[in-house]
Amino acid sequence: MNHLVMYVMTQTAAEISIIIPVLNEQKGIVFFLKHLQNFRPNCQLIIVDGGSDDDTVELARPYVDKVLQAPTGRAQQMNRGAKESVAPILLFLHADTFLPEDAVIQIKQAIVRQYRWGRFDIKLMSGHPALTIIACFMNWRSKLTGIATGDQAIFVEKDFFETSGAYPDIALMEDVALSKKLSKVAKPCCISSKVSSSARRWLQFGIVKMTLLMWWLRLRYFLGNSPSSLAQLYREGLFWKR
Questions:
Q1: Which one, of 21, 172, 149, lies nearest residue 84 by Cα?
Q2: Torsion of CA 100, 101, 105, 110, to 10 degrees
Q3: Is the pTM of this model over 0.70?
Q4: Calpha distance 122→48 (Å, rounded)
Q5: CATH superfamily of domain region 3-198
Q6: What is the per-residue pLDDT across 116-169, written as a single tens digit (0 to 9) for each?
Q7: CA gyration radius for the chain?
Q8: Is 156 in contact with 90 (CB distance < 8 Å)?
């Protein structure tokens, strides 16, 4: 029985489980989750908290179907959410990334077209022209390499995600690592509808610096550097440890 037939046979009230890892997001979590209410009841909304010490969980609870706890780290948080999901399709979404209105339709069409996973194009929420160019480059690179970032809202059939080993438990580049595993088996669907993602880190550290830093960290990851040490550099906006 192929995966498309199984998708049709295993339809539940929730067609897609949207899994959102969070940590200390009280400032914007209600606004973010209100945007997602339009996707219910076709989507199950799951928040996975990584140990917030603010009011993120209590603010989120009225707007989601499940609130889960997991150790800090997006990989572990998203894996926990996937394990508790009920839908045949998983969508991993950062709490500062907003889906396009046709997201569910686009994902379902991708599955019908025999894609097992994919991601969306991205635009960065800023009027700065340089960030528009950077987003275009990110989309082009992703199409060329088959590698997606978490900001591009990765979606995947649940059974494919599980048989591929889920997210590796690493502190950074978990999205790149998952993409590499999935793309070895199936080509991703690159949806041209755009998610809108926060440009806060680009604006915080500077556009040129952040661009160079991401290239540098990705290069070091592919050269075998520890994701834990790279995660520390990413958090602090540094090229090397002091």
A1: 21
A2: -10
A3: yes
A4: 23
A5: Spore Coat Polysaccharide Biosynthesis Protein SpsA; Chain A (3.90.550.10)
A6: 999 999 999 987 888 999 999 999 999 999 999 999 999 999 999 999 999 999
A7: 17
A8: yes
Q: Which amino acid is at 58?
A: E
Strands 189-198 and 43-49: unpaired
Integer Cα distance of 55 and 151 in angstroms? 24
Q: What is the DSSP string of the chain?
A: --HHHHHHHT--S-SEEEEEEESS-TTTHHHHHHHHGGGTTTEEEEEEES--SSSHHHHHGGG-SEEEE--SSHHHHHHHHHHT--SSEEEE--TTEE--TTHHHHHHHHHHTT--EEEEEEEEES--HHHHHHHHHHHHHHHHH----GGG--EEEHHHHHHTT-S-S-SS-HHHHHHHHHHTTSPPEEEEEEEEEE-HHHHHH-HHHHHHHHHHHHHHHHTT--HHHHHHHHHHT-SS--
Q: Where are the domains of the chain?
A: 3-198, 200-242
237: left (phi over 0), alpha (psi -120 to 50) or beta: left
